[in-house]
Amino acid sequence: MMAPVSSSIPRKPRRLRLGLILGGLIVGFWLLLAAFGPTLAPHPPGQVVDLDVFSPISPGFPLGSDYLGRDVLSRVLVAARYTVAIAVIATMVAAACGFFCGILAASGGWPDAILSKLFDTVNAVPSLMFGLVVIASLGASTPVLIGTLALVYTPGAFRTSRALALNVTALEFVTVARARGERLLYIVLREILPNIIGPLAADFGLRFVFVTLLLSGLSFLGLGVQPPDADLGALVRENIAGLGFGASAVLSPAVAIASLTIGMNLLIDAASGSRRLGDGR
Amino acid sequence: MLDPWVLRLIARRIGGALITLFLVSLAVFSISLMMGGDAAEAILGQSATPEALAGLRAAMHFEQPAYMRYLTWAADLLRGHLGTSLITGQPVAAAVAPRLASSLQLAALTALISVPLALTLGILAAVKRGSALDRTISVVTIAIVSVPEFLIATIAVLIFAVTLHWLPALSSSRDIRSPLDLFRIFAMPVMTLACVVVAQMIRMTRAAVCDALDSSYVEAARLKGVSPRGLVLRHGLPNALGPIANAIALSLSILLGGVIVIEVIFNYPGVARLMVDAVSTRDLPMIQTVAMIFSAAYLLLVTTADIVAILSNPRLRYR
User: Fold this and answer.
1) ipTM field
2) How many CB atoms lie within 10 A of CB B187?
3) Percent helix, percent strand, percent coil in chain A, to nearest 5
């Protein structure tokens, strides 16, 4: 799913290489962990395995134990899958909706006016407030969560796609394709999409960061992933009592979220930075 | 100086914002409709008799068609009749007003600290582009922007309350006796919020000033021998004013979201925590009011930025 981001990068390896490598490694690490992490967990994530609670890092419990005496490493491994999977799916939905609405709007006329106003409205409600109201009224389930996250970040994806598509649709090859009598879907997928895929991928990465942050924030407020399941934000919430003595149980998931989002941001920044250099500005 | 054309542009922006506010009110009302059916049950509990439920629903006008209820609600909203809380029976306005005041205090203090700091650092970074200072600022701001607010808040608690014992972990404006108390209570929430806002604002300010300094008129000024100082102060900054105002407004709008997490973590008695509490008790009038306040505040910020951008654009000013 992240392939567009990483595949567009090796072509422009100029400066900022450190950010590129570091960001790529971190993001790759988390994607792998989301795929295989739960199978690596040393203990069942829900099982109480330690007599002590909030115990520090030890050989038996590499990240300590949580407020009930469960293994933090196992819980982080499982929670990472929730966070990454929900964020990736929500971002894909937002990006896809944003893309198709953006292309539609780029052709101008009343669809543009209506869609722009509609997404402006969604944007005018602060995102956490929006999530709070929607989830409170529909209940916190994973589909509602994904839908809310996608809806909140569709306007941004829409705006990017629309702006990019506006630039491209004015070019000759689109006119030529239209004159050839190609179908709309062909023009969109074969002529327009390949020409804006780079900036779109960067936008995807950025939106993934926003989605991850909002998801973690909602879970931290108790409105995200519901027990017995937990994502990284929910792990921070349930172990917040350990903050007083700097327990690994509250720090590990927090650091996990931060490394995922910082890694992704480094990657985007380095990638779009080198693209700017490549543009010869 | 202001010709009618500019005035018309500004009027159109304000009109657009009002239309958006109307659409937001529709959205807020229809979202709350979805939970509306359950509000009566939420109040009376699961053991309520059907008759009691029907009675309460009638009292809450749930039997009217949706558009009628929207019109009544919107008309009341415009006249400042915000209704009464379903949970406490207190008028919403009375519950919201003191909370709003303390949230605004928090926001104002944060803005007061963030704006000058962020503008200074952002402009410095842009002027000294590529220097060690610029790169440090850029790495640090990326890190802060990509981290959730609650992480910054928990780290702040860990350092200043748990390890150093300098500041209380919770804030309550009740026991303020001296300026020092005031400082101790606001320090942590303001610091955390400012951290997030400043990082965002620096990035946007830097981008705006860089854009201005890259333009051909600055290039031309450099060729005619204007000093680096003059380049920035007389040619770069005046033209970056609009984008910078935009950066300030957009970054301050982050305050609106950040304040929710911060008020919950620090137990700060502001309007955002009122909202979180209202959501958990499904207190409809309260939710609607606070959601409208937040949206109106956001639109106010964005529209102001738009208008400043129009006014500061010399091409529009001297037409």
Assistant:
1) 0.76
2) 17
3) 75, 0, 25
Lookup: tokens for A205: 């990465």
> Which of B150, B214, B274, B280 would best serve as a mutation to test chain A binding (most A beta carbons within 10 A)?
B150
Using a 10 angstrom Cβ sphere, with 0-12 exposed, 13-18 middle and 19 or more buried, the burial of residue B256 is buried
Question: Mean of the per-residue pLDDT values for chain B?
Answer: 79
Q: What is the pLDDT of residue B12?
A: 87
Could you tell me if A277 lies within 8 Å of chain B, comparing CB atoms? no
Q: What is the pTM (predicted TM-score) of this model?
A: 0.80
Please answer yes or no on whether B23 and A233 come within 8 Å at the CB atom.
no
Q: Yes or no: say if A226 and A238 are a contact pair by the CB < 8 Å rule.
A: no
Contacts of B302 in chain A (CB under 8 A): 124
Q: Do B287 and A124 make contact, defined as CB atoms within 8 angstroms? A: no
- Nearest residue on chain A to B23, judged by CA atoms? A121
Query: For residue A91, which amino acid is it?
Result: T
Query: What is the distance between the alpha carbons of residues A11 and B76, in angstroms, rounded to a whole number?
Result: 60
> B162-213: per-residue pLDDT in tens?
777 777 666 555 555 666 666 777 788 888 888 888 888 898 888 888 888 8
Q: Which residues of chain A fall below pLDDT 70?
A: 1-16, 50-51, 272-281
CA distance B306 to B14: 9
Share of chain B above pLDDT 70, in %: 85
Can you tell me the distance from the alpha carbon of B310 to that of B316, in angstroms, rounded to the nearest whole number? 7
Residue bearing tokens 């500019």: B6
Report d(CA A210, CA A198) in Å as an integer.
19
Contacting residues of A for B12, CB less than 8 Å apart: none
Domains and CATH numbers, chain A: 29-280 (1.10.3720.10)
State whether A261 and B146 contact (CB < 8 Å).
yes
Q: How far apart are CA B187 and CA B159, in angstroms?
A: 13
